[in-house]
Specification:
The protein is mainly alpha-helical. It has a domain of about 60 residues. Strands 1-2 form a two-stranded antiparallel sheet. The longest helix has about 30 residues. The radius of gyration is 24 Å and the shape is elongated. The termini are far apart.
Length: about 100
Amino acid sequence: MIQEYNDIETIKKHRRICDVCHVEIKRGMACSVARCEVCKIDLCDKCVEHEANTMGDYRETYCKKCWEIGVLYLDSIKAHENHIDKLYKDWYAECNFKN
């Protein structure tokens, strides 16, 4: 016998909200996701303080707080990267490696 009965289901819906300004973030594809690289908060496009120019599928974005702190370190990071590049160049030169 087939008995008819009423079944009430509760459907939970989720929406993504900007952690800074609390507006709902409408997103279609994964490549549109904006999340701070440092603190991992969700950001709407208005709250992205800096976005790196990347060639990949995902955005490299930073919130205002993390970017302002990071700016203090960027010159030092660049200097260390240049020093590392020079060390590799010297190493290869000593081994007579030709590019």
